[in-house]
Structure formats: structure tokens, C-alpha cells
Amino acid sequence: MSKRRKSFTLIELLVAMGVLTLLVMLMLQLFGGAQKLWVANEKRSNIYADARVAMELMADLIGTVQFAYGESVENNVYSFDAKQNMIFSLDPKSKDATDNKSSSSIIFLAKTARDLPKKSNDSRFISFRRGTTADQDLRGKLLMLIVSDQPITDIGYTEDNFYKLFPPYDTDRDAMRNILKGYFNDIVSKFKSSTGDGEYEYCQVIAENVVSFKLTAYTLEGTGDNRVLKKISDDSADIKTPPYMLEIQLTMLDRDNYSKWLNIDGDEAREKFLVRHQRTFTRSVFIGNRWATVTD
């Protein structure tokens, strides 16, 4: 007579199911944690890649800044004459009124064939600025604006306007600098109202989700081995001469955290959030004393 096969009891089945459920939960947690880690690393990599591209572009173009000598000559010395030098403007102290974060801006004449509008001259005026947080169309965007000899019909800008921005000026240099600022402001307005995908030849977004854009200027003081870099105060008025060195500081968040940061109430809570999630990148550009007084 064959032996009867013993079957599992209900308690044994329940224990087996419990162990299996526990193993499945542990595996899900393991895969979930790995996925979160992968997503976090991917977001961080994207921020580093975006910042590297923006920093390299700004450093490359700022490094080509042009600032001519004055034409006053006495005893073979080229003296500094502001009326005969190229337009330059650096505002290191500006802050966004909405989020109270650094929002520096710069305008300079660059000599390079990189990223030019079609058919334009190798020289053109460039401005870098951060869009204001209060403006939904520009918030978090780092903009590169271009004015060259290419006409911009949208704002009534012609080739003649470009050459009037060079010395000898019809009026004083400060007046022409303000006129150039007006052109850049008009370009920003046209960029905002451009096609749905935001394409506009004279305004390019070079980085997004930017929390802070700070430019710090340094001069070189002293002689010989005693020369030292000295920071120009952040409270300084608009700087009209290229500094010896310019430090670029860019603070960014990933897209999801930037949206969360915008919706946080209270300055203290927003700052704590930034401390945990922001990434800050710094790049120094040595311009040198290419506009200094020169003797023969």
C-alpha cells in the first residue's frame, strides 16, 4: 500500500507567502533606490553640462573684449581718453527685485566669428543678463544678446546704427552707451514675443533654471612682485572700463527643483532649499591691461 503524500498546511502556505512578499518588497525598494540615485545623477550631470557650455561661451567671448586707446598723443604717450574708447558696461551689483538674487549684466564689444548672426561683421556688441524671476517668459534664463551690423528690422535697427556706436561719437560715449542699452532692451522684448519655440536670432538662451548670475571685477594694483588683485566693491557704480580680471559665478538648479523653489513661501525656507539643492560654478577670465596707458 503506497504512502499518502503529505500536503502543505494553511499555516505553511501563509508563511511562504509572507516571506515571498517580504522579498518582493525588498527588491522593489532596492530597484526604487537605484532608480532615484540614477535620476539624481542624471539631473546633476545635466546641470554640469549646461553650466560648462554657458561658462565656456561667456569666457571665450569676454576674453575677446575690445577697448581702443584714446587718440590724444603727447610725447609719444597714448593717453586715456574716454571719448575715444569703445563702449563697455558692467553692472556687478544688480539684484532681482523678486528673489533678491544676483543679476549682474555686462555689455562689451567682442572680436570673434563665433555665434554671429548671418552675414554680420566679425565685431559685434554682446550682452549677458539673467531674466527676472517676476517675468514668466524670462525667469531662470541666462540670455546672450547680439548687436552687429546686421539690420534688426523688428526694432528699426540699421547698419548705420551699428557704426554710430564706434568712436568718434556723434555725442558723448555715455549717451551712446545708453542708446546701446536701449537696443538690447528692445531685443529682449522682441524675443519674448517671437515664435512659440522662442527662437530669435539676436537673443539666445544659453542656460536655464539659473538662480543667480554674478560678475565680480578685479583690478591689478602695485608694481613688480608686489602686484595684487583687488576686488572692485559690489556696491560700485556701473563700471565703464574692462577690469583686469572678471569672475563669473553661475548658480543653477535642476528643472524640478527650480519649479519647487519658485513656489516656496518665505525667504528663509527658500534659502534652506537652495543650500540643499543648488549648484554653483565659477570661472575667471583674465582680460589684462590692454587699454592701459602705453609709452613708445
Mean pLDDT: 83
One letter per element, helices H and strands E, the order comes to HEEEEEEHHEEEEHHEE
Radius of gyration: 28 Å
The biggest beta sheet reads:
5 strands, antiparallel
Distance between the termini: 122 Å
Task: Give the strand order, joined by hyphens, for the main sheet.
Answer: 3-4-5-6-7
Unreliable spans: 70-80
Q: Helix fraction?
A: 25-40%
Basic shape: elongated
Strand content: 15-25%
How many strands appear in the DSSP assignment?
12
Helix-and-strand structural type? alpha+beta
How many structural domains does the protein architecture include? Answer: 1
Question: How many H/I helical runs?
Answer: 5
What does this structure look like?
The protein has helices spanning 10-62, 159-163, 173-192, 255-262, 267-277; strands spanning 73-74, 77-78, 89-91, 105-111, 123-130, 142-147, 203-207, 210-221, 228-231, 245-252, 279-286, 294-295. By secondary structure, it is of the alpha+beta class. It has one domain (65-295). The strands form three sheets. It has a five-stranded antiparallel β-sheet with strand order 3-4-5-6-7. It has a four-stranded antiparallel β-sheet with strand order 9-8-10-11, with helices on one face. It has a three-stranded antiparallel β-sheet with strand order 1-2-12, with no helix packed on it. The N and C termini lie far apart (122 Å).
How would you concisely characterize the structure shown here?
By secondary structure, this protein is α+β, with helices and mostly antiparallel strands. Helices cover 33% and strands 23% of the residues. The protein has one domain.
